[in-house]
Specification:
Low-confidence stretches: 3-30, 523-532
Oligomer: single chain
Number of strands: 54
Number of helices: 19
Largest sheet: 20 strands, antiparallel
Length: 900
């Protein structure tokens, strides 16, 4: 055969081989591959959307967008998209490229401190390939990026490196799909998965589930609970890891649909249980979901609530070989189990917690609990209204009964409320809870919480509820030190997502799963009010000059909001505080009301009555302004009373009325007007600096009285002094005491601030445990402790000539501001939960009140004219403060829009 013919034959074979190779590669590239099969098995979350631009469009029209658009990640992404669009050629932009395209994003944990994303993007046409290639070429031409190509196990990886900050973006192509990630480690992991031939989806359990066929669904969201603890471990302290592991072991994975409303994100779908031995599911298997009735007694101060529904609660305990008394006690509980953490006012102290456990027969369960401590020694039992609070000294009793999730109770106080046994580790927490329930300050009666309760599942097996504003200090406390700074930097953004609920309810062999993330409500009306700052709603002219501050009350007829105040002709008014103010009742007195107007249920009808004092009398009047039988009580014509204080030692309506005069005499009477032994009067050698205070410690009532001359007294109910008292603080005082009640006199502390700026803390044995001098820049500087209206925290006010400074409890400066005049300043402090704090500073000379928010920034452009301190209500739904003030003969009602 001629050589020439041989060469042509060889060339034809080579061309055929090359053609076949090219055809096979082209065929392989066109072969459809599910993007899900490329996702590594360690993905924590996988999100699939079939039209990202449509989702962004809807998001931008919602209340969520104003907050989401401020997130650092979104800001960076927006910059990157703008850059890509500017570099693209022709009319093709990223938005058009992604329209009607199925795209995946997966989240992975790298090591112990990092997490990163992978993007999976199909490239379907020649034009789309050209778009990608042109983008890369133009990025190189800018001179800001360096492109490096390298081979890894038969695939070409392209690394795009920012020359300025060395940030990296790596990608490779597989079957006309781009895999892109800032992490080269994750890109290489996917290539290894391909080469192993292990193209299996981590969501293979849901291969027939696709919510994207529904018009109102924007994404499929896959959650891998087996790797969720790794992600949370980046953010949370190590001591929480065991709890996270146990809760995450309820389910193996979930596939949820993502829906978007104006201010809510909904994730709904089904989860597969985690069937390994020792998982939470292994304990809850076969238990039906329980109705969420606990909302009727959950306090509005709740920050984090873990709710569980069980047929029998003993299953939560570790299995034991033999039955014990604790097993019997634990199994007497069934239904709902709720662990509630209350709002904390700083990050240094452990949060208050309450455990609610439902019992099928509360009386039987209570009898079992009492067997743990049959003796009723002093301090182990006290009455609080209709409830009896008992102390059980068994260590970590809730943990013994319900497992490790419920540890942290060194001692346990318990009481019964309906079908529920309530446990706390602090008696003051229990008292405050019972008071909140009685006052209706619970979830089911909160207007702000109604939307969440209506949208969440009405029954569940496991539910987690987080009120972000209330939980902020708890989140900071639980966060690892490395992540706290990031959390603080983004606090304004995070707090706007004000409520999260996650619930699982048994549904055949799966759990129906619902996640709701709520954002605070925005509106054009709120924005308009916010621009105006202060919006005066209404004035009500009473005709004559007003001589008291407005006192907030409720009209007993219909429990509507009301304001009580007195005019210069000594007429006392009850004025409806609704939009159209009206006089509900009047009462003509003989002298000025001294101190506050209290409102308490009293009498045979148990309706609200008004209690107050004048210069020498104590009054109780009804809804018509008429004196209740036996009232008023006259104490003497020459007395000059300062105020009335009401004590209810056992919270059972057996009130004691305490009044003190300008000479330091203290009278205490019962509701029949009888002076109590030791208080007829108690003669102190100086005027009181603040109202008398009552606390109960270890079952013993203590009446604390601080005199302006620095003496502090502690009395029993019969006027007997407690050992160690009085103590002399050797300083002038114009403040009361801030209590922190412990389990004993030694562990109960009280803090006050002297006029010279010394913070003094002492215990109930009379020992001063701490003295700290605040900076006093001027010899004329004076200090005062200012408790918030609810008594949960306090601030310190320092008055300098023409200037005022406010400090937090730990001494951190809040505000330092010069005012118009050097006249005395009056400070009021209101805290309505979370960041809803309001500081009111009133200049007594010009009679102007200035309002400041939690950041101590002025609220509104104008001051409020007022002759006396103000009263404030807060509307959580609208984020508005309603301020009641008096100017001459006019009652003013002013609405102030809080900042978001």
């Amino acid at each position: 055969m001629p050589k020439k013919t041989l060469y042509w034959l060889f060339g034809a074979v080579v061309l055929l081989a090359l053609g076949f190779y090219a055809f096979s590669k082209w065929t392989e590239a066109r072969e459809k591959v599910s993007l899900w099969t490329l996702v590594p098995d360690n993905a924590v979350f996988v999100v699939e959307t079939n039209n990202a631009p449509r989702f962004i469009d809807h998001l931008q029209q919602s209340d969520l967008w104003a907050t989401i658009s401020e997130m650092p990640y979104v800001l960076r992404l927006d910059d990157q998209i703008s850059l890509l669009d500017s570099l693209s050629s022709g009319r093709v932009q990223l938005r058009r490229f992604l329209t009607k395209k199925n795209v995946l994003v997966s989240l992975h944990v790298l090591g112990r401190t990092e997490q990163e994303l992978i993007y999976y993007v199909p490239v379907n046409t020649v034009a789309e390939h050209r778009y990608i290639r042109t983008l890369v070429e133009h990025m190189v031409k800018t001179g800001e990026y360096r492109i490096e190509n390298r081979d890894y196990q038969g695939y070409q990886i392209t690394d795009i490196i920012d020359k300025n900050n060395k940030d990296n973006l790596s990608y490779f192509s597989f079957h006309n799909n781009l895999v892109i990630s800032p992490s080269t480690v994750l890109v290489e992991e996917i290539i290894r998965k391909i080469n192993r031939g292990q193209l299996e989806s981590p969501a293979k359990d849901y291969k027939s589930t696709n919510y994207l066929s529904q018009n109102d669904v924007y994404a499929n969201v896959f959650i891998n609970f087996q790797h969720l603890p790794d992600l949370l471990g980046i953010f949370l302290k190590k001591d929480m890891q065991d709890d996270v592991n146990l809760l995450s072991s309820l389910c193996r994975n979930s596939m949820l649909e993502l829906k978007l409303d104006n201010n809510r994100l909904f994730l709904n779908g089904f989860s597969n249980p985690e069937t390994v031995e020792g998982s939470l599911y292994s304990r809850l298997q076969g238990h039906a979901a329980k109705p969420f009735k606990l909302r009727e007694i959950l306090p509005t101060r709740a920050a984090v609530v873990l709710h569980m529904g069980l047929n029998q609660m003993g299953v939560l305990r570790p299995a034991t070989a033999e039955s014990s008394f604790v097993d019997t006690l634990s199994n007497s509980f069934n239904g709902e189990l709720g662990l509630c953490y209350l709002e904390a006012y700083d990050t240094k102290t452990s949060p208050e917690k309450i455990l609610f456990a439902q019992a099928s027969n509360p009386a039987y369960t209570q009898s079992l609990l009492n067997r743990l401590q049959p003796g009723r020694t002093a301090g182990t039992e006290e009455k609080h209204g209709k409830n009896t609070i008992r102390l059980l000294t068994a260590r970590e009793l809730p943990q013994q009964l319900f497992g490790d999730l419920f540890k942290g109770f060194e001692q346990t106080y318990y009481t019964t409320l309906g079908d529920y046994i309530l446990f706390t580790d602090d008696v003051q927490t229990m008292r405050a809870l019972l008071t909140d329930v009685e006052a209706g300050k619970v979830w089911s009666k909160s207007e702000a919480l109604q939307p969440l309760l209506n949208e969440s599942q009405q029954e569940d097996n496991v539910g987690l509820f987080i009120n972000t504003a209330n939980a902020w200090n708890l989140l900071l406390r639980a966060m690892s030190p490395q992540q706290q700074a990031s959390l603080l930097r983004n606090s304004a953004i995070i707090k706007k997502f004000n409520f999260l609920s996650v619930q699982f309810s048994a549904a055949e062999k799966q759990y129906y799963t619902s996640i709701v993330l709520r954002h605070q409500v925005e509106s054009s009306i709120k924005a308009a009010i916010a621009r105006e700052g202060i919006w005066q709603v209404e004035t009500f002219d009473l005709g004559k000059g007003l001589i008291t501050q407005p006192f907030l009350t409720q009209y007993p007829v219909d429990n509507s909001d009301e304001v009580v105040l007195q005019d210069s002709s000594l007429v006392l008014y009850g004025v409806g505080a609704a939009k159209q103010a009206k006089r509900n009742w009047t009462d003509t007195l003989f002298s000025k009301v001294m101190g506050p107007v209290h409102q308490l249920p009293y009498g045979a009808d148990k309706r609200l009555k008004y209690f107050f004092a004048t210069a020498n009398r104590i009054y109780c009047i009804d809804k018509n302004g008429q004196d209740v039988d036996n009232f008023p009580f006259t104490l003497g014509d020459t007395l000059r009373l300062q105020r009335l204080t009401v004590f209810d030692y056992d919270k059972n309506g057996n009130y004691k009325l305490a009044v003190d005069d300008n000479l330091g005499n203290v009278f205490i009477l019962d509701m029949q007007g009888n002076l109590q032994p030791g208080w007829g009067p108690m003669r102190l050698d100086g005027r009181l600096a603040a109202p008398p205070q009552h606390v109960k410690v270890n079952g013993r009532n203590v009446l604390l009285m601080v005199q302006e001359n620095g003496l502090v007294n502690a009395f029993g109910t019969q006027g007997e002094s407690y050992p160690g008292f009085p103590i002399n603080l050797n300083a002038s005082i114009r403040s009361g005491l801030f209590p922190k009640i412990g389990i004993s006199f030694r562990r109960s502390s009280f803090t006050t601030v002297t006029q010279s700026g010394e913070i003094i803390t002492f215990d109930l044995t009379g020992e001063i445990v701490n003295r700290q001098q605040l900076l006093r820049p001027d010899r004329r500087s004076t200090f005062q402790l200012v408790p918030e209206a609810g008594g949960k925290s306090f601030i310190i006010a320092r008055s300098d000539p023409g200037r005022l400074a406010l400090f937090e409890q730990d001494g951190k400066l809040l505000l330092d501001r010069r005012f118009v005049t050097s006249s005395p300043k009056e400070v009021q402090y209101f805290h309505f939960g979370g960041d809803r704090k309001l500081y009111v500073v009133r200049e007594t000379g010009p009679k102007k009140a200035y309002l400041f928010d939690v950041q101590t920034q002025p609220l509104g452009q104008d001051a409020i004219t007022t002759a006396y301190p103000v009263s404030v209500q807060y509307n959580e739904v609208k984020n508005q403060y309603t301020v009641f003030s008096t100017d001459k003969g006019v009652l003013q009602k002013t609405v102030v829009q809080g900042r978001d």
